[in-house]
Amino acid sequence: MSQREWIEKDFYKELGVASDASADEIKKAYRKLASSLHPDKNPGDNKAEERFKAVSEANAVLSDPAKRKEYDDTRRMFASGGGFGRGGFNPGGGGEFNVNDLFGGGAGDGGLGDIFGGLFNRGGARAGAGNRPRRGADVETETTLGFREATQGVTLPLRMTSPSSCTTCHGSGAKPGTSPRVCPRCNGTGIVSRNQGAFGFSEPCDDCRGTGSIIDEPCTDCAGSGVQNRTRTVTVRIPPGVADGQRIRAAGLGEAGLRGAPSGDLYVTVHVKSDDVFGRSGDNLTVVVPVAYDELVLGTTLSVPTLDGRVGVKVPPGTADGRILRVKGRGVQRRDGTAGDLLVTVKVAVPPKLDDNAIEALRRYVEAERASGFSPREGWAGGDA
Predict the structure, then answer these.
(1) How far apart are CA 75 and CA 149, in angstroms?
(2) What structural domains and CATH numbers belong to the chain?
(3) Among 194, 199, 193, which residue's Cα sits nearest to residue 104?
(4) How far apart are CA 190 and CA 163, in angstroms?
């Protein structure tokens, strides 16, 4: 993208954020828009597809600190009502600005050099930014996993629509069998300079739009851009133990780079569904097991589910209701190969209804319990036993 295009486009407006928005605000705005405008959710809707492309382009610039700074610096210098024209810099939208009118300098002085060169030539380099290879932008997407898929890890295909290198011209932008040629006006730099009085001005070359090359026969599939939006399927490995809301980085699966530069990365935000049996606390799995009163009093061995089967858990006699029993190493797998624990909470299940024989037996048990001197409220600070 040339600096002229940067000036003419308002990327902050595309994302609906203020110009001083934080990186997190930009990320949230992009995710919300990309989710609602994604072509998969709007099949056949050309307007939604164009908006999706626009917000993706805006995010590619504003999410990159270096690109955002260059964009802000350029707009701050030139977006106060003017812009680039073929006749020169026009700061107020009126007549052509002439430095001689202010300073009366003679043509060809050039004593102060090119004061705007730094905007378009980092470090004073002469080659235009559009003529250099450029790493592809990072791409973000989302996926939803089942609880057990997230804890055990899974490999899944993701269908994405994003800018990719044109498969017809292989990113050159030229019709197969032809090649771009060096722009004769700027000699491949992408920048043209001119002097006005004591100052030198640089601006993107109009003939090549700042790329340094001219394509006489553009590729018909990508209209000479070298990039086209393609729907593709990529395979991503989600490691074991991924948590809800966690971002997974897949290197090199993002937007294609320009002129042979490497591709960007793919970031996948994972959403995890809840499970009917298990909960999670960090790297530990939690499970609540209903038990009978006598199992707590007399003790028992419970068969408790795990992620890969079942395990026997011993309940000691006299176990209190709500006690947590720990099973080592049967929780969520960690990156180092170890695993968290399984935390088993025992919870008494009270029968909703008893027959006459059971009620009579329970009353005899209560009498025996009281005769032994046991009181459930003994020592309780809330009142007498």
Answers:
(1) 47
(2) 1-97 (1.10.287.110), 283-371 (2.60.260.20)
(3) 199
(4) 23
Q: What is the identity of the amino acid at 357?
A: N
User: What Cα–Cα distance (Å) separates residue 21 from each residue in 15, 24, 29, 35?
Assistant: 10, 8, 10, 20
Q: Are strands 309-315 and 300-306 parallel, antiparallel or unpaired?
A: antiparallel
CA distances from 29 to 33, 58, 72, 139 (A): 6, 11, 19, 14
pLDDT higher than 50, residue 109: no
Per-residue DSSP letter, 384:
-
What tokens were used for 67? 């690109």
CA 149 to chain centre: 21
- Residue 135 in 3-state DSSP? coil
Q: How many CB atoms lie within 10 A of CB 59?
A: 24
Instruction: In whole angstroms, give the CA distance from residue 8 to residue 63.
Output: 19
DSSP-derived secondary structure for 221-281? TTTTSSEEEEEEEEEEEEPTTPPTT-EEEETT-SSPPBTTPPP--EEEEEEE---SS-EEE
Question: Which H/E stretch holds residue 213?
Answer: strand 213-214
29: which 2 tokens? 């705005």
253-286, pLDDT tens digit by residue?
887 776 557 888 999 999 999 999 999 999 999 9
pTM for this prediction: 0.53
